[in-house]
Amino acid sequence: MIDVPQFIFATCQVGAEHAVKREAARRHPDFRPAYSRPGFLTFKLPEGHELADDFKLRCVFARSHGFALGGVRGESPAEMACEAWRLFGERPYDRIHVWPRDLASPGHRGFEPAVTDECRQVRELLWQHRPATANVATDDDTSPARRGELVLDCVLVDPGQWWIGFHRARGFGSRWPGGLVGLQLPADAVSRAWLKMEEALRWSRLPIPSGARVAEIGSAPGGASQSLLARGFHVTGIDPAAMAPVVLENPRFRHIRRRAIQVRRREFRKVRWLTADMNVAPKYTLDVVEEIVTHPEVRVRGMLLTLKLFDWEFADQLPEYLARIRSWGYEVVRARQLCHNHQEVCVAAIRHGRSVRPPKPHEK
User: Mind listing the domains of the chain with CATH numbers?
Assistant: First the structure.
């Protein structure tokens, strides 16, 4: 008989633990915080819970989550692998995910969340020590899990300590080990903003066609612009700071060297997609974007907005920020703290009614 798990785990950016706990308390008041480390949390589930194996934690700041079966320690990695399978029991599985908890904030002294060589070695050990009676799983560790696959989770929490759990792959983050999408910064990228934009485009799946016009507010020095240009978009970068020469040389890039509030609205008439990443408080970003997308001559269909959380207390105001964006006429508004985000979140918004003019503030 397979025991019903009594705990769940969540992994997040270092520093976001309190935000995850507060989100969980609002959405799941019967979950009780249990063991935690920076970037790794567990919660005790209520007795008699009936959570499905593909349950959604619905926490913006939780990069990954699943059922937690317990911690593993041992004198050798091989011994720990055997103990991991003992904890996992006779559950069926399709794939094995191994990843480390974050040891620093993304971008701090060059740190980027990623699956390490140690993770690959542990995964190989788990594969080698799998029980003879276990269902045959794929040995592929390079592609994301397919939707519906059951995944054995192994989080490397500390040296000599793993946590074992499982989840069923459904959405974007659940298909990759720990929600880590495996991006590598290209050698010619002018900034790590390339990572943020590339991950945002993959997560949001905004249906931006090749050749589309995209306005990018806060474009300098151009890392995100490179990601957009590589997909065949025509990009108008809006930033008072200088752009990298390699970006300016692209014939599909145009630089307006001004602040967004100084740009005439006619510049946005043919723009259908907009991104914004400014080093300002969330309210200022939303003020600037609202003035653009609610203008009667502007028809922006979809957006990717980065909201800076200079203080973690801003995280509690995120529902208000998202509600404000919906009030502009965007039916689908989602947020996620991407693995390459700093202390910030990415918001994706799209309007299905392309010809509908968004309401002006006085019309709401």
Answer: 7-179 (3.30.2130), 193-363 (3.40.50.150)
